[in-house]
């Protein structure tokens, strides 16, 4: 499973976008969050906090956050 998020660009919008994905994600599923870069620090912060809280792994690559739900 994979969800691609290209939503809000401030912290609270980005965090809520990620939270809304949770109910549909199977173990091992991936969320890809767009615009995770210096231009949108709120997206970066939301991805990091969400990953920490939900125990997701996170990798930042090509201005995208790749968040993987634990199996």
Q: What does the model show?
A:
This protein is an alpha+beta fold. 35% of the residues lie in helices and 27% in strands. The chain has a four-stranded mixed β-sheet with strand order 1-2-4-3, with helices on one face. Helix 1 (11-21) links the parallel strand 1 and strand 2. The radius of gyration is 11 Å and the shape is globular. The protein starts with a strand and ends with a strand. The model has no long low-confidence stretch (mean pLDDT 97).
Features:
about 70 residues; alpha+beta; 4 strands; globular
Given the structure, what is the number of helices?
Answer: 2
Low-confidence stretches: none
Write down the overall mean pLDDT.
97
Question: How many beta-strand segments?
Answer: 4
The end-to-end distance, rounded to whole angstroms, is 12 Å
Molecular shape: globular
Which band does the percent of strand residues land in?
25-35%
Neighbour order of strands in the largest sheet: 1-2-4-3
Category by helix and strand content: alpha+beta
The H-and-E topology, N to C, reads as EHEHEE
Tell me which oligomeric state these chains represent. Answer: single chain
Q: What Rg is obtained from the alpha carbons, in whole angstroms?
A: 11 Å
Helical amount: 25-40%
How would a crystallographer describe the biggest sheet?
A: 4 strands, mixed
């Amino acid at each position: 499973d994979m969800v691609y998020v290209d939503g809000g660009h401030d912290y609270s919008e980005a965090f809520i976008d990620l939270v809304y994905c949770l109910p549909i994600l199977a173990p091992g599923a991936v969320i890809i969050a767009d615009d995770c870069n210096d231009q949108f620090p709120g997206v970066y912060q939301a991805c990091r906090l969400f990953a920490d809280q939900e125990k997701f792994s996170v990798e930042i690559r090509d201005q995208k956050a790749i968040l993987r739900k634990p199996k």
